[in-house]
Specification:
The chain is an alpha/beta fold. It has helices at 6-13, 19-26, 36-49, 52-62, 72-85, 89-101, and strands at residues 2-4, 32-35, 66-68, 104-107, 118-120.
Length: 123
């Protein structure tokens, strides 16, 4: 299992410079974990920049992955992670979800650079 964060989904959907590298991780959606905060962030970004129908199509694609809701356990672990690594709330939730699910985070978000179990993709 792998967790692709918001940066990865957006880069992939926008067919950005790293889209092909992210596609390697997204090709088999049943092997991908998606925290609800990532669902929120990606939907919001697509909805702000495009039509609602396009945002809903993106959500439908993301729903093929295993959606992991924010639980009490993940919330508390996120707070600890945020304090330890000075991560913003959403990033801490993503990282805590990956820790709870024992998987790596695939990202190009500089907040994650250097953290354990992070596959950091650079252009």
């Amino acid at each position: 299992m792998i967790l692709v964060d918001s940066f990865g989904w957006i880069e992939y959907l926008a067919e950005g410079q790293l889209a092909q590298r992210y596609e390697e991780y997204l090709v088999n959606p049943v092997e991908v974990i998606t925290p609800t905060i990532v669902l929120y962030e990606v939907y919001k970004k697509v909805r702000r920049e495009r039509k609602e129908e396009e945002a809903l199509l993106v959500v439908a694609q993301m729903m093929k992955t295993r959606i992991v809701p924010l639980s009490e356990q993940i919330a508390l672990l996120s707070a600890e992670i945020s304090l330890k690594h000075s991560l913003p709330m959403a990033d801490a939730i993503v990282y805590a979800t990956a820790m709870k699910e024992a998987c790596s985070v695939v990202t190009s978000d500089p907040h994650f650079k250097g953290l354990e179990d992070v596959i950091y993709l650079e252009a």
